[in-house]
Design brief:
The complex is a heterodimer. By secondary structure, chain A is an all-alpha fold. Helices cover 46% and strands 0% of the residues of chain A. In chain B, helix 6 (202-212) runs antiparallel to helix 16 (420-433). Chain B starts with 8 loop residues before the first helix and ends in a 13-residue tail after the last helix. The chains are: A mainly alpha, B alpha/beta.
Chain lengths: 65, 446
């Protein structure tokens, strides 16, 4: 498995520019730092078939009896 | 009667039914207090001198639309914007005899946890005006605490009902995702947004929830789960908590108050491993940032300078969230919810923890001049609330003490999906044995 690369401020600038979002000065580096720190560790394994709509069913299954 | 505004919502409604008080007297009592308190706490954005309907007056975060009336959403961009329709929640409160006496201050577009607002002025804590009221439903917490309205609606996407409830010493209910229609309420993050009441007690929250809960064809994401009557039946609860985690991670004064409250509940206490707050918070932030930025994309392209620096920064970050990360967070949501219900709540009805692990911070500490430690402090403010929004489950905050500086401390109960009745019953049982919820900030001479 390829290790994930860290986001750079240049990559963030390019990504937002491509979406037409002007960045305030000095913001790209802060966003890159936050994005690199925000990777969730220890998350749960997922079934291949799972999709976001499964959440509505889980609410029903888990509700107070 | 001394000051009708000091009554609870339940007591005021009873006094109205018994004709001991009139709607006009209740409204006038609130208006008199608003006139005295507003210069100090800046909780209101607009005030109705003559509420349209009879009943017990409430006030609401300035993001619930009413046809023909302005809803500024705490922003410059929507300053003066006139709503074309009335939100379902407001319509239901009108019908239930809870008219609106005004609109309340809030964080810009509900995207901030402190109550700072550079467009409309910061909302301040009624217990000490150097301190935050909490956000984003800042005016809702402050107005209820200062007895300027008998209750208020707020919205909660990462803690925006519970943080102001805790900071201001009132009772606040974050409802199950889908429990209350969001039709006609300003969206922030549709997967996480929920609407709930802030009031002076669990009993008052139950009255407001009974009026607003239930499915709504105008909100296709609202649940068809029957709304229930939120009757506050006394019953035995099994309450899970993680005492060791609270003692090791929360401020010592917060930990002492919360653990003392837990022991006084008269419930069976079950020690459990804490949920993975930080991983769940990361998922919450991923979803919130992506959805909020999509919601604001047009204005971020056309009018970025009209946002405050803090909100613009948060919105910029959302444009850097990879689509796959956003969708993975949503795919994982069901599995995390089931894990919470089958492990943390395996042998309990409710999970108990502080609403905030830190004491209420000052406006300066958490504002633009907060310095290098400010981002970390803001993360601490929301650390114990965001995970609940990711799971979508309900949570109730009740006041459980005061710190050595006289600022409130809030206790949080978290339940299974649609367990609002159990949460409110537990809060009511606690409030039958304690008087934290009935204390109000002193009205010093102005």
């Amino acid at each position: 498995m390829t290790a994930a690369k860290q986001w750079s401020s240049e990559a963030i600038e390019a990504m937002l520019a491509a979406q037409g979002i002007p960045l305030a000065p000095g913001r790209a580096e802060k966003i890159a730092t936050a994005l690199n720190a925000a990777t969730a560790s220890g998350s749960l394994p997922l079934e291949f078939e799972s999709d976001p709509t499964g959440y509505a069913l889980a609410l029903e299954r888990c509700k107070a009896k | 009667m001394s000051d009708p505004a000091a009554l609870s919502l339940a007591a005021a409604a009873q006094a109205l039914r018994a004709r001991h008080l009139s709607s006009r007297e209740l409204a006038d009592a609130c208006l008199a207090r608003i006139a005295r308190w507003q210069p100090r706490i800046n909780a209101f954005i607009s005030v109705e001198q003559q509420p349209a309907d009879e009943g017990v007056p409430l006030a609401h975060k300035d993001m619930f639309y009413r046809k023909g009336r302005v809803s500024n959403c705490g922003s410059k961009i929507r300053r003066g914007w006139i709503a074309q329709e009335t939100s379902t929640a407001l319509s239901r409160l009108d019908a239930a005899g809870m008219p609106q006496i005004g609109t309340l201050n809030m964080a810009e577009f509900a995207y901030g946890p402190t109550g700072h607002n550079e467009h409309w002025g910061d909302c301040r804590n009624p217990w000490n005006q150097d301190y935050i009221a909490g956000g984003s439903s800042s005016g809702s917490g402050a107005a209820v605490a200062a007895r300027l309205a008998f209750g208020a609606l707020g919205s909660d996407t990462g803690g925006s009902v519970r943080i102001p409830a805790a900071a201001c010493g009132v009772t606040g209910l974050k409802t199950t995702w889908g429990r209350v229609s969001r039709h006609g309420a300003m969206p922030l993050s549709h997967s996480l947004d929920s609407i709930g009441p802030l009031a002076r007690s669990a009993e008052d929250c139950a009255l407001i929830l009974a009026a607003i809960a239930g499915s709504d064809p105008q909100d296709p994401l609202s649940s068809r789960e029957p709304a229930g009557d939120y009757f506050l039946a006394k019953r035995k609860f099994r309450v899970a908590l993680s005492s060791d985690w609270i003692e090791r991670h929360a401020d010592p004064e917060v930990a002492a108050a919360v653990l003392a409250a837990a022991r006084s509940l008269g419930a069976s206490l079950v020690e459990v491993e804490p949920p993975d707050f930080d991983t769940l918070s990361v998922h919450c932030i991923t979803v919130m940032q992506a959805e909020a930025s999509a919601q604001h994309a047009r204005w971020m392209r056309e009018r970025p300078g009209d946002y405050s620096s803090a909100v613009r920064s948060r919105l910029e970050a959302g444009f850097a969230v990879p689509a796959a990360a956003y969708l993975e967070a949503l795919r994982l949501r069901a599995a995390w919810l089931e894990r919470f219900c089958t492990t943390t709540l395996a042998n309990a009805d409710l999970y108990l923890l502080p609403a905030m692990k830190v004491r209420v911070p000052t406006l300066e500490q958490t504002g633009p001049r907060g310095g290098a430690g400010m981002p970390a402090l803001l993360a601490e403010v929301t650390r114990l609330t965001r995970w609940v929004n990711y799971l979508g489950v309900p949570a109730l905050v009740v006041p459980c003490g005061f710190d050595s500086l006289g600022l409130p401390i809030g206790l949080q109960f978290v339940g299974r999906p649609f367990a609002e009745a159990a949460l409110l019953a537990a809060g009511h049982a606690f409030q039958c044995e304690t008087d934290w919820h009935s204390r109000a900030p002193a009205e010093r001479s102005i």
